[in-house]
Design goal:
There is one protein chain. The protein is an alpha+beta fold and 499 residues long. It is built from 11 helices and 26 strands. Among the domains are: 125 residues; 34 residues. The chain has a 26-stranded antiparallel β-sheet. Helix 1 packs across helix 2. It is elongated and about 130 Å long. It starts with a helix and ends with a helix. The relative contact order is 0.04.
Length: 499
């Protein structure tokens, strides 16, 4: 019995000592430097506990990190029930100063405050934040200290402040509203909805030009809506995004969080092609609608495109950096209209393109069916010099084979009708300089007329070498005027050799 009493006395003394150490002011004063030292060992920045009060039913803690970060919490607790009812406050004047702590470079201020209530089974965190200039309210439930469900409303988040916060150039400004209702945050069994609205977007041309070499026009606006449904490991979104030059829609943009894979359908509508000059460096007119699919994952990238345009159809497929495109039954007059080039040829065209986006090299094969050369400067000059209207000829099959080197094209042309044949080898077209330099060998009956086309792509200089034509006409005229006796004489032979 004596030993049992002694043991109980020792236990009571130990409990009393622990109570004095943990839950009294003298005990807190002893614990405070110990806790500070533990925190300092984990935080690679100067830290200081500016407040430390621990009682059986309440606590108050305030931690200063560096010169401009303060984290504070105060409330009541029940150690037996493992419950908590507290308020917290986080005030960071400059996120960049916490780079060593958070492991990434962030910028700007950040504030949040709220309450924590509940126990181990269910704990609710309700708070407010001003992240990226927004007014954000959030409600997070923890179950067994694991994220359970989340609701959040983000109002007027500023795009420029968000870009600055994550260390990106300020490419644009605008505001974003987000309404999230996520009953399950389990990353393998996600469930919920996220509604995102982008308003008053405006692109800043200078940083876009500096980083992407794109001359975005001034007043380039954008807005959009993204409705996202979370299911399993996937986020499936309906996208409606409108810019100053185009509209982009997707019925099912799917991101698989587990696989890191994205797939989507899309419809892109451009009401005025000339608005894309900052991308294409080519003035155009008309409109176009393109539909297709995009898939990207750890293995690579794949995209398709389809458009019913110019009286025919355009289909393309891109796998990583390789592009294959096919054009069927388009009208060449409509194509030259779109490109703002003069009308030169009227036909139905089929084309095949293979292009490498990394090397910017490729090949284009075109076949033009049942075509006719349209009246132009060249046809007028041919008619004046050869007394032949080449626009009446029908070319059942014209072929063009082009080697592409970035924006420089080298083409071979062959076209033949009943009375004419046109051939060009290695003709040059420089799309960046809008320059053409080619020679077309024109054969009309037995007459050869080299035609040199050189200069501005939309209005080049045209010269016709008439030497062969003059010789042919002179020979023909000689044949008419010389008598048979003269033709058979030595003088006749000499004249024939001369011509």
């Amino acid at each position: 019995m004596k030993y049992l009493v002694s043991f109980l006395v020792l236990v009571l003394l130990a409990i009393g000592g622990a109570y004095a150490l943990l839950f009294t002011q003298p005990g807190n004063d002893i614990l405070r430097p110990i806790v500070e030292k533990k925190i300092a060992a984990q935080v690679p920045l100067p830290t200081k506990l500016t407040a430390f009060v621990l009682r059986p039913d309440r606590f108050e803690v305030a931690l200063q990190i560096g010169d401009d970060t303060r984290i504070a919490a105060k409330g009541t607790m029940n150690l037996v029930a493992q419950s908590l009812d507290a308020a917290y406050d986080v005030d960071i004047l400059e996120l960049a100063n916490l780079q060593k702590l958070i492991g990434t470079k962030l910028n700007g201020p950040f504030k949040t405050h709220g309450t924590v209530k509940g126990d181990k089974k269910r704990m609710a965190i309700d708070g407010e934040s001003d992240v990226a200039g927004s007014a954000t309210d959030y409600h997070l439930v923890l179950r067994n200290f694991e994220p359970g469900d989340l609701t959040a409303k983000v109002a007027h988040l500023q795009i420029d402040k968000l870009l600055h916060m994550v260390g990106q150039p300020v490419y644009a400004k605008g505001r974003v509203d987000i309404d999230a209702d996520i009953p399950s945050l389990d990353m393998e069994h996600l469930k919920g909805t996220v509604v995102t609205k982008i308003r008053d977007g405006l692109v800043h041309p200078e940083p876009v030009k500096a980083d992407f070499n794109l001359s975005i026009p001034k007043n380039f606006t954008f807005h959009g809506d993204v409705d996202t449904r979370l299911s399993g490991t996937k986020a499936v979104s309906v996208v409606d995004f409108v810019t100053a030059v185009a509209t982009l829609k997707s019925k099912a943009l799917t991101y698989d969080i587990e696989e890191g894979a994205l797939s989507t359908d899309y419809t892109l509508h451009v009401p005025n092609l000339d608005d894309l000059y900052f991308v294409t460096n080519q003035h155009m007119k008309g409109k176009i609608t393109v539909t297709g699919d995009v898939k990207t994952d750890k293995k690579g990238f794949m995209a398709t495109a389809h458009s019913d345009t110019l009286g025919g159809a355009f289909d393309a497929k891109m796998v990583n950096n390789k592009v294959n495109a096919k054009i069927k039954n388009i009208q060449t007059v409509a194509l030259t209209d779109m490109l703002l080039y003069p009308h030169i040829f009227d036909s139905t065209a089929n084309m095949t393109l293979d292009f490498d986006t990394l090397s910017k090299k490729g090949e284009l094969h075109a076949e033009l069916l049942d075509g006719q050369i349209l009246p132009n400067k060249m046809t007028f000059m041919l008619q004046q010099m050869a007394n032949f209207d080449i626009t009446r000829e029908v070319y059942e099959r014209t072929t063009i084979d082009t080697r592409i080197d970035d924006k420089v094209l080298h083409s071979d042309l062959h076209m033949k009708s009943k009375l004419t044949e046109l051939v060009s080898k290695n003709g040059l077209v420089d799309l960046e300089r809008q320059y053409i330099d080619t020679t077309i060998e024109v054969k009309i009956r037995k007459m050869f007329l080299p035609v040199v086309i050189k200069g501005d792509l939309t209005d080049p200089n045209i010269k016709i070498d008439t030497k062969d034509m003059i010789k042919a006409k002179a020979k023909e005229e000689l044949e008419k005027r010389l008598s048979d006796d003269v033709k058979k004489s030595p003088a006749g032979d000499l004249l024939k050799k001369f011509f």
